[in-house]
């Protein structure tokens, strides 16, 4: 609950500080005094919409602060710990400032935070409703929330939502896969063709260089043979060939060495040349004999070289790199095949999630229907206490047919929402014998207020109510016994919580454990709203004003005193 509230430069409030207690605190005052502005500030402080229009004229920001008591608020403490916000003892300070440029500055404890943090924090301990509470009550999602809280189905609904998220995840993955299928198939066809093309040519390391040399030999084979023959003729086959005349040359040199022994070395050199020429003749002869020329082989070599050239040009790689390219394409093709197998996996996962989802949806729907009878009975009992003697609330659940619905039952398909299969509608009749009709169409403002309070009372029996409930004029349109009944119900609800309530009804105001009066005054040509906590005498005069207007006669004052004493008793 809030133990201390500070508002600065917010609309009509220049500076306001309030100490608040548990129980029922009522805010009263003339219309237009600024009561609802306090609740607007509370809504903003707990993450609601904030408007720069609420910044007091002439100021550059508004500032809101609240000290929250964390006693017994385990859910709130858990949230603070999860988010890393520290607190001292059983209290924490929350602060929000809104600048003229629309930027907000938020702190929880000593740490900077966001508006979302405030909103989530508020959900753990407070509910804030204005005089348009009927809009909240008429929202079908909120009606379903009332039934689920009554039936203690929040845990099951959480499981359903988790299963729905999983189902949507796999459904989207499958949809994305199918969307890209055509592109993937085209890529697969290209990969298969390229792998087949490379493997058909199957280039080998060093093959290109070897074939290039062979091509050169084959292309020049005839000229080589002719040159080899010419060399052999000059060496030994012609009449005056080198090797034929060389023995005579050697013999002449031998004669010289006989005459001049010192020339023996020259003879050795010429004999060595002669031996070398004979060796060269043998080598050339062997090469001539090994020389092979085939036009067919030349065509084959040139065709092979052309294939290799095409591969190099097409893939912009060398023959040495083509093997790595082939492996990369094979790997990509294998990955595609695995992805193609993923389609079956994705479909299986989606179908498995749908089976679990349907089971949870059927279970949730069955338990809701089982809870309806008791829920209706208890709400009707509470409405009776609130003066709606002939009132009846009827809960209608149905499944919405949808040709594209995920859940099939018989020959029909049904729509799945975040809350399950069920669509809900509260039906209401205020008088006996009348056929219930949709609550949104038939209930008056006063009837809606009492139905809302009846629902709050019923839920308070099933699960702990929020520690703080902020209500803005929910008793609008009530009077007499109906207002009396609402006052009693509010007093009862406030036994274990803090209720802050704006009221124009004296019965409800008298039931408050505390009363705060909001007034406005003129100061320096400006309007300023102020708040004051009333003691017993002040409350008596304020109640007298609510009963009889500005003329505080002794009769009106006595009526106010009796009303206060009655409620106090």
UniProtKB/TrEMBL annotation:
The answer on whether this UniProt entry bears the keyword DNA repair reads yes
GO function term, MF aspect, one: ATP binding
Query: Which top-level group of life is the source organism from?
Result: Bacteria
Q: Which family does it belong to?
A: Belongs to the RecN family.
Q: Which residues form the RecF/RecN/SMC N-terminal domain?
A: 1-524
Tell me the PANTHER family matching this sequence: DNA REPAIR PROTEIN RECN
The task this protein performs is described as: May be involved in recombinational repair of damaged DNA.
Q: Please report the name of this protein according to its UniProt entry.
A: DNA repair protein RecN
Per UniProt, which keywords does this protein have? ATP-binding, Coiled coil, DNA damage, DNA repair, Nucleotide-binding
Pfam families (alphabetical): SMC_N
* A single GO BP: DNA recombination
Coiled-coil annotated spans: 267-339
Of the GO CC terms on this record, one is: bacterial nucleoid
């Amino acid at each position: 609950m809030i133990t201390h509230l500070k508002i600065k430069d917010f609309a009509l409030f220049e500076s306001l500080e309030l100490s608040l207690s548990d129980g029922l605190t009522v805010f009263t005052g003339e219309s237009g005094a600024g009561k609802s502005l306090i609740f607007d500030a509370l809504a903003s402080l707990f993450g609601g919409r904030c408007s720069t229009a609420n910044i007091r004229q002439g100021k550059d920001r508004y500032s809101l602060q609240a000290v929250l008591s964390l006693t017994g608020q385990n859910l709130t403490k858990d949230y603070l710990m999860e988010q890393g916000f520290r607190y001292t003892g059983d209290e924490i300070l929350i602060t929000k400032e809104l600048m003229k440029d629309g930027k907000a500055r938020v702190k929880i404890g000593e740490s900077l935070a966001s508006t979302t943090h405030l909103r989530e924090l508020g959900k753990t301990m407070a509910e804030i409703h204005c005089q348009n509470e009927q809009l909240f009550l008429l929202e079908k999602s909120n009606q379903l929330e009332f039934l689920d809280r009554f039936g203690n189905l929040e845990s099951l609904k959480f499981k359903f939502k988790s299963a729905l998220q999983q189902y949507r995840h796999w459904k989207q993955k499958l949809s994305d896969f199918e969307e890209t299928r055509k592109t993937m198939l085209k890529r697969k066809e290209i990969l298969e063709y390229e792998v087949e093309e490379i493997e058909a040519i199957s280039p080998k390391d060093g093959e290109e260089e070897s074939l290039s040399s062979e091509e050169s030999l084959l292309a020049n084979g005839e000229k080589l043979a002719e040159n080899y023959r010419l060399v052999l003729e000059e060496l030994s086959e012609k009449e005056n060939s080198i090797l034929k005349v060389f023995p005579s040359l050697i013999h002449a040199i031998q004669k010289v060495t006989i005459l001049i022994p010192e020339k023996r070395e020259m003879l050795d050199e010429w004999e060595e040349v002669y031996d070398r020429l004979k060796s060269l003749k043998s080598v050339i002869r062997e090469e001539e004999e090994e020389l092979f020329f085939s036009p067919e082989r030349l065509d084959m070599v040139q065709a092979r070289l052309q294939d290799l050239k095409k591969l190099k040009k097409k893939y912009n790689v060398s023959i040495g790199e083509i093997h790595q390219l082939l492996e990369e394409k094979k790997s990509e093709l294998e990955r595609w095949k695995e992805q193609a197998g993923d389609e079956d996996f994705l479909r299986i996962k989606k179908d498995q999630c749908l089976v679990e989802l349907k089971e949870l949806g059927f279970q949730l729907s069955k338990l809701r229907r089982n809870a309806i009878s008791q829920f209706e009975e208890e709400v009707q009992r509470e409405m009776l206490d609130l003066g709606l003697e002939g009132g009846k609330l009827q809960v209608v659940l149905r499944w919405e047919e949808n040709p594209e619905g995920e859940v099939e039952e018989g020959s029909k398909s049904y729509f799945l929402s975040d809350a399950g299969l069920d669509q809900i509608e509260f039906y209401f009749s205020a008088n006996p014998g009348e056929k219930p009709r949709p609550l949104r169409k038939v209930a008056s403002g006063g009837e809606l207020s009492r139905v809302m309070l009846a629902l709050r009372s019923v839920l308070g029996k099933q699960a702990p109510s929020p520690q703080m409930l902020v209500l803005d004029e929910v008793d609008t349109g009530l009077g007499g016994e109906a207002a009396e009944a609402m006052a009693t119900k509010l007093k009862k609800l406030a036994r274990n919580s803090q209720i802050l309530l704006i009221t124009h009804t004296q019965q409800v105001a008298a039931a408050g454990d505390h009363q705060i009066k909001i007034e406005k005054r003129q100061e320096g040509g400006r309007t300023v709203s102020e708040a004051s906590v009333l003691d017993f005498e002040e409350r008596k005069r304020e109640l007298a004003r609510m009963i009889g207007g500005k003329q505080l006669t002794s009769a009106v004052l006595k009526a106010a005193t009796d009303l206060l004493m009655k409620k106090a008793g």
